[in-house]
Design a protein that fits this description.
The structure holds two protein chains of two kinds. By secondary structure, chain A is α+β, with helices and mostly antiparallel strands. Chain A has two helices and nine strands. In chain A, a hairpin with a 2-residue loop joins strand 7 and strand 8. Chain B has two domains: 64 residues, no CATH class; 102 residues, Nucleic acid-binding proteins (OB fold (Dihydrolipoamide Acetyltransferase, E2P), Beta Barrel), CATH 2.40.50. In chain B, strand 6 and strand 7 form a beta hairpin. Chain B has a seven-stranded mixed β-sheet with strand order 3-4-8-9-7-6-5. Classes of the chains: A alpha+beta, B alpha+beta.
């Protein structure tokens, strides 16, 4: 009986070891959306780097600020030069973990609600965040989606009085990544 | 008085009265472009109306200029933009990898004309991304990723991997695995 238990434990470890996989993408999509009665402003970045460790739940994102595309060239210019200072702070990053990664069965298609906690760094300022999202496993790929809000003031972003009515104080961030198993 | 409802005769009378009235007469003396001296009489009200008209027209023109050329100014046409630097892909990648901060300061936000060997093309949703891969890192192959402009997608898709190509685009930086270029066009 003891022997069977040891064999079972070793097999489990071996399987877990084999499954200790990373899922990655370099084409993740992040959209941000500011809505006020005066105008709506949105921008998209489709060159988002992201990696998820299936076993530890470690989840990281890295975004180049200059890769955000706006409908209006002027908004893009102001975003880079005045608000994000993208020459000085070219990246925004998130580094955290999926706290309930054990609830996600990567071998089975399905949709799993998850909580992600970690450090979000924008303009060189790091804040702890905890947001909910969904990981969807489908045919060996993992799609991650989350919508949350960030306050401009938390990251030292000041809005000039002249456009105070045009830009929301709380910006909605939509994250949408389709992660593929990293073949090694 | 020039109120609504007054007859044409009344209007004519009032204009004449205003022009003739010494209090309202405005005399401007000066030289015409021809050099002869002129003398114009402008009633103050008309002068104010003309000035108001000019200011309003200038205001509307300024508003239109601001709306079309500043607020709604078009995005840069990167396909016809002149490259700030012409570089070899592997040299650029190596520079970003070894000294990211200085290289980023030099090339980020600039239009680069990059030559190298096309290693592959990715198609994700509506995006076509041309790749120059140089090494295998923690997250797969690393190198330069060029997001192609829609007009150049077909051409790059039909270019076989291994072909020497030159691609021009806007460098948006290095994300610790790849150098990213947006709005790219295939030069040859």
């Amino acid at each position: 009986m003891k022997r069977i238990a040891v064999v079972l434990l070793l097999s489990t470890l071996a399987i877990t070891g084999v499954q200790a996989q990373k899922y990655i993408t370099k084409n993740g999509h992040i959209r941000f959306f500011s809505s006020t009665p005066v105008e709506d402003i949105e921008a998209h970045n489709r060159q988002v780097n992201s990696a998820l460790d299936q076993q530890s739940g470690e989840f990281v994102f890295r975004v180049l600020i200059k890769s955000f595309q706006f409908e209006k060239a002027l908004m893009q210019e102001h975003f880079n030069e005045n608000y994000m200072e993208s020459d000085k702070f070219p990246n925004a990053t998130f580094s955290g973990t999926v706290t309930n990664i054990k609830d996600v069965d990567f071998a089975k298609n399905g949709s799993y609600p998850v909580t992600v906690e970690g450090d979000l760094t924008i303009r060189g300022i790091t804040k702890k965040i905890s947001e909910s999202g969904v990981l969807e496993v489908k045919d060996g790929k993992v799609s991650g989606k989350s919508t949350f809000n960030v306050l401009l003031a938390d990251y030292g972003i000041k809005v000039p009085a002249a456009v105070a009515n045009n830009i929301a104080r709380s910006i909605q961030i939509d994250v949408d990544v389709l992660l593929s198993k990293l073949e090694k | 008085m020039l109120y609504k409802g007054s007859t044409n005769k009344q209007r004519a009378f009032s204009i004449v009265t205003i022009i003739d009235s010494p209090g309202f007469a405005y005399v401007k003396r000066g030289l015409c472009p021809g050099g002869h001296q002129t003398q114009h009489h402008f009633p103050m009200k008309r002068k104010i109306a003309i000035a108001a008209g000019i200011i309003a027209t200038a205001g509307i023109a300024a508003a239109l200029i601001i709306y079309f050329f500043v607020y709604n100014k078009p995005h840069t046409d990167y396909a016809s933009a002149k490259a700030d630097f012409q570089l070899d892909g592997s040299t650029l990648f190596e520079q970003f990898r070894t000294s990211p901060a200085e290289t980023s300061e030099k090339y980020t936000g600039k239009v680069l004309d990059i030559s190298g060997i096309l290693t592959g093309v990715e198609q994700v949703d509506s995006l076509t991304i041309a790749l120059f891969s140089f090494e295998d890192g923690l997250f797969g192959s690393e190198g330069i990723r060029f997001t192609m402009l829609p007009d150049y997608s077909g051409e790059i898709i039909s270019t076989p991997p291994g072909s020497p190509v030159t691609i021009k685009g806007l460098c948006t930086g290095y994300n610790e695995t790849d150098v990213i270029l947006e709005h790219c066009s295939l030069l040859h």
